[in-house]
Amino acid sequence: MTTSADHDAYIAAAPEAFRPVLQHLREVLARVLPEAEEIVAYNMPGFRLGGTVVASYAAFSRQCGLYLRPGALSAHAEEIAAAGFKATKTGITFPPRTPIPDELVERLALTSRAEAVT
Fold first, then answer.
1. C-alpha to C-alpha distance for 31 and 14, rounded to whole angstroms
2. For 45-101, what is each residue's pLDDT tens digit?
3. Residues 85, 49: Cα–Cα separation, whole Å
4. Is 92:66 a contact under the CB 8 Å cutoff?
5. Per the confidence metrics, is the pTM higher than 0.85?
6. Labelling 36: which of 29, 82, 105, 109 has CA 20 to 30 A away?
7. Phi and psi at residue 101, in whole multiples of 5°?
8. Sign of torsion, CA 32 83 55 16?
């Protein structure tokens, strides 16, 4: 994908099959992090509080990714695994046909926010 200036442009440039998933992630994150500023950093749309990116998402050639503060992923490692996803230190990748459940995205985003403000 090319570099995008904002969330709308990033989603519009993503492969068509990915767009609904990315738009939904954006909506869930915006709802859970209403005080966060929408930004694009490292060529990924994200949400920043103060100077800290607390959540971001991306589209790749075959999968999507949700990226959070490392503590959020470790705090919810069992839930992530139970939902059938694998996490790295900073993110979870998933095929667009199998998105991360909203409730898990919400818990992860809230934990990431708490880590960022402490």
1. 22
2. 999 999 999 999 999 999 999 999 999 999 999 999 999 999 999 999 999 999 999
3. 27
4. yes
5. yes
6. 82
7. -60, 140
8. negative
2's tokens: 């090319």
Tokens (6 digits) for 19: 């767009």
Distance from first CA to last CA of the chain, Å, rounded? 34
CA distance 75 to 92: 14
Three-state SS annotation for 29-85: HHHHCCCCEEEEECCEEEEEECCEEEEEEEECCCCEEEEECHHHHHHCHHHHHHCCC
Helices 102-117 and 19-32 meet at what angle, rounded to 10? 50
Task: Work out the average pLDDT over 17-25.
Answer: 97
Write out the two tokens for 80: 């992530």
Domains of the chain: 7-117 (3.90.1150.200)
What number of other Cβ atoms are within 10 A of residue 74's Cβ? Answer: 13
